[in-house]
Amino acid sequence: MRIIYIPVSKKIKKKNLRNFIKCFLYDHYIVLKNFFINKKITTNTSGYIDAALQSNAYVLELPYNYCIIFSKILNLLFDGIFINWKFTSYRSDLEDIEKKLLKLSKKYKIKKIIIDGRDQSFVTIDNKILDNFDYVIKREKNKKIINNKYLTTILPCVLISNYYKISKNKKESINWSKIGNSKPNNNPTYDIFFSGKKTSESRKELVEFLSSKDLNFFGRVDERIPYNQYIETMYNSRINLSLEGIGEFANRHLEILANCSFMICQSSINELDLPLPLVDGKHFVTFKNKDDLLEKINFYLKNDKDRNEIALNGRKVLEKYYSPKKHGKFLFDKIFS
């Protein structure tokens, strides 16, 4: 399979000469990346699907302007074109994004797929755009989206990115021995841990609520701690909270699983169509409101065996199913069948 991929571009806030030069140089960097021998998972929001494409096809990465200029010959040589939603530099201009997507759709007769890496699981693409494309691969798609054109993907796990490689012959390798932890921590320092940005009011309210209780709680909102300390504290805590931010699913969910740590998160995670078979009560635990959260915290603080079993199950499901190559094969079978 031979595909064209328009990846994430350099983001700018203002249109000026300096930013124009920056974008021009980055476009050339995109072209040069095609000559890299081994490729890793990038830590941007589309890193997992990027690796899924690279491990299952010959991928030519090109910036938008190249795809417009050379569309006639590219149509003859390739089977499909995948466009990352963040393909344009000036992303605040939604009208411009839609205009460019429509222009691409008219230029190409091969399979046309949009990769939508936006946070909100329920946000969809306008029908006037969708009608001109074959599929949309959406990050953590909400189950309420029933349109068959929507397929689902997931965020990359930051802890895995440094130990994942795709060789030139498309062989995938993940060195799990160096990723996080493979066994639960039997002597944690803290009872509960959460650290994150104040991306929602509910985060602040829940952290303040738990801080008022008699718990050994390491909690931070809008107070950054070094990443290494963040990961160490995660493993050194009996219970890790993964609270909703801009969207229902975050890097933290995957980091907790990779760390073989116990996770409690909001029940909205069950509304997502995830490419990993994660099950509430087996790989993590959810809560509906702050009273339900406190009740479950008190229960699992007293039940080490259940807590550690769930943490270990979470790590095992990640080791077994976290594979961009398998994910990409599933998507390609759908798209090109």
Give a verbal description of the structure.
This protein is an alpha/beta fold and 337 residues long. It has 2 domains: 2-157 and 323-336, Rossmann fold (3-Layer(aba) Sandwich), CATH 3.40.50; 178-321, Glycogen Phosphorylase B (Rossmann fold). It is built from 13 helices and 15 strands. The strands form 4 sheets. A 6-stranded parallel sheet has the order 2-1-3-4-5-7, sandwiched between helices. It has a 5-stranded parallel sheet with strand order 11-10-12-13-15, with helices on both faces. Strands 6-14 form a two-stranded antiparallel sheet. β10, α8 (201-211) and β11 form a beta-alpha-beta unit. α10 (251-258) crosses α12 (304-321). It is elongated, with a radius of gyration of 21 Å. The mean pLDDT is 94.
Topology summary:
Layout lengths: L1 E5 L10 H16 L14 H8 L3 E4 L2 H6 L1 H7 L2 E5 L9 H14 L3 E6 L10 H4 L4 E5 L1 E2 L7 E4 L4 H4 L2 E3 L5 E3 L15 E7 L4 H11 L5 E5 L5 H9 L1 E6 L8 H8 L4 E4 L5 E2 L11 E3 L2 H13 L1 H18 L2 H13 L1
Parallel strand pairs: 1-2, 1-3, 3-4, 4-5, 5-7, 10-11, 10-12, 12-13, 13-15
Antiparallel strand pairs: 6-14, 8-9
